[in-house]
């Protein structure tokens, strides 16, 4: 892999020093950047109407919902409870109760995070702190 001759980050567009190994804004690995690696020019649904700015990476966009745990564990508990009900309905019912508790835990602990870096520190762009962050991360706009 070759290092790009340009000091502009291909992911976020920030101009970095040529000695930088990672982008200062989005932490993109500039040292191992391959010119064949491209990013979609199409904005995601979270970028179309920016109302928030991330304090960590400076991304403008919407908050994205994030749930703790795993959908795979939910599916496994559900399949296990259905399967165990065929052999022993008491054990299957206990596993089904664990499935319901796990689902409630996941849904009740939902956070809204930055869609690019996953940070939960998002600031409205029309607030004083948000306008300072916009000036810091996006001086050209």
Describe the structure.
Helix content is 33%, strand content 11%. The protein has 141 residues and is an alpha+beta fold. It folds into three domains: 1-39, no CATH class; 52-67 and 110-137, no CATH class; 71-108.
Q: What's the overall geometry? A: elongated
Main β-sheet description: 3 strands, antiparallel
Radius of gyration: 22 Å
Number of helices: 3
Let me know the average pLDDT.
80
Please give the share of residues in helix.
Answer: 25-40%
List segments where confidence is low: pLDDT < 50 over at least 5 consecutive residues. Answer: 1-5, 36-42
Distance between the termini: 33 Å
Q: Please give the domain count.
A: 3
Oligomer: single chain
Instruction: Give the strand order of the largest sheet, numbering strands 1, 2, ... along the chain.
Output: 2-1-5
**Sequence of secondary-structure elements:** EEEHHEEH
Task: Please tally the β strands and state the result.
Answer: 5
Task: State the main characteristics.
single chain; 141 residues; 3 domains; 3-stranded antiparallel β-sheet; two-stranded antiparallel ribbon; disordered N terminus
Give a short summary of the structure.
The chain has 141 residues and is of the alpha+beta class. The chain has helices at 71-87, 89-108, 128-137, and strands at 52-54, 60-61, 63-66, 111-114, 122-124.
